[in-house]
Amino acid sequence: MFKWFKKKPKKKEEIIEREELIEEVEEVEELEEIEELEEVEKIEVEEELVEETEESEEVRLVEQIGESLDIEDEVEEEKEEVVEEKAPKKLSLFEKLMGGLTKTRNDISNKIDGILKSYKKIDEELFDDLEEVLVTADVGVNTTMTLIDNLRARVKEERVSEPNEVKELLKDEIKKLMAESKLNNKLNVEPSPAIILVVGVNGVGKTTTIGKLAHRFKNEGKKVLIAAGDTFRAAAIEQLEEWGNRAGVDVISHSEGADPAAVIFDGIQAAKARKADILICDTAGRLHNKSNLMNELNKIFRITEREYSEATKEVLLVLDATTGQNAMNQAKVFSEVANITGIALTKLDGTAKGGVIIALQSELKIPVKLVGVGEGIEDLQPFIVEDFVEAIIK
Ligand SMILES: Nc1nc2c(ncn2[C@@H]2O[C@H](COP(=O)(O)OP(=O)(O)OP(=O)(O)O)[C@@H](O)[C@H]2O)c(=O)[nH]1
Ligand SMILES: [Mg+2]
User: Fold this and answer.
1) For 37, which of 4, 18, 160, 377 is 20 to 30 Å away at the CA?
2) Which of 375, 378, 311, 389 has the alpha carbon at shortest distance from 346?
3) Torsion of CA 33, 34, 35, 41, to 10 degrees
4) CB of 96 closer than 6 A to ligand 1?
5) pLDDT digit string, tens, across residues 18-77
6) What angle do CA 160, 163, 166 make, to 5 degrees?
7) What are the tens digits of pLDDT across the range 80-100?
8) 375 lines ligand 1 (CB under 6 A)
9) 114 Cβ inside 6 Å of ligand 1
10) For ligand 1, is residue 277 a contact (CB within 6 Å)?
11) pTM of the entire structure?
12) Shortest CA distance to 317 belongs to which of 287, 341, 286, 343?
């Protein structure tokens, strides 16, 4: 009993305790549940956060990639542009010539077209107008008169009556006149060894032409040397050395003020020792008067004759086309003091006076061998009559 009694209250206490315990447990469980819930929420929030960051990271990455792709595209486009700039479409010689002669062609062709359109029949006035166009394009008075006389005779002979047929006839007459002089427009460089003496007044383009020529011969597989015979100023020697570097050709030079003939002498010795195919010699253009010019050049010619008699010789006179009829006068003076064997006419790209070539060939009977149509290393061409006429009258 006692036991029971004892037990009973005990049981009661126990019950209370248990209840309390249960309550506590429930509370704890509740708390735990809350915590769990919170934990779940936390996890969910964290997960969301992670997702969000991942998403934004992705977005950022995608954007970044997009941007960098865009940048890459831009860079690629720029690269392509640079490549295009660096390596423009390889133009044919004729296309380059056409480009270089744009000013001359626009001037001559537009005027001729205008004249021929304004006439219903071919009469003397039409010939007078054509004559004026040719003279203003620096074809030269004498050459123009010969051309117009020939054209008039041809029109009569072939009974041509349509003004628009005159253009083709004029082109043909120019070609015929230039061919009449039977000049050889090829450079004298065969057989090797050869020496090219480049002469001309200052600023016409001698040094530039030498650089372009050296490049051309080198590309043809020839062994080339350059002699810096313009010792008038240090900058001239440096300029030539720069061109030598560009063309990959050695330059034999002395210092400023040295005797030009001594430089040519050394150039010849070097050309012999190195078995060069072609030696190209620069000379000074600043020669104050005719006797000075003659003395200077004669000394160079004597050295060349004595030291390199076996060499094929070319005396190339460089003329600046932009000076028009003045170029004709220079050609006359130089041919009085030296046996000029060919002309290089430069800067045709910068002038409408390209017609001067016709006068140089037909009046002075000196063959034009090279034409300069720009400042770049590739902008030098052999002179071909047919192409030239086609390029100036379209
Ligand atoms: N546009 C154009 N410029 C040219 C051509 N040839 C030469 N030039 C330019 O003409 C200028 C004079 O050329 P140079 O080669 O220095 O002339 P140079 O006869 O050696 O002159 P000096 O040594 O002073 O007597 C340079 O600015 C050249 O770039 C050409 O065919 N076209
Ligand atoms: Mg020079």
Assistant:
1) 18
2) 375
3) 110
4) no
5) 566 556 655 655 555 555 555 555 555 555 655 555 555 554 544 554 455 455 555 555
6) 70
7) 555 555 555 678 888 989 999
8) yes
9) no
10) no
11) 0.78
12) 343
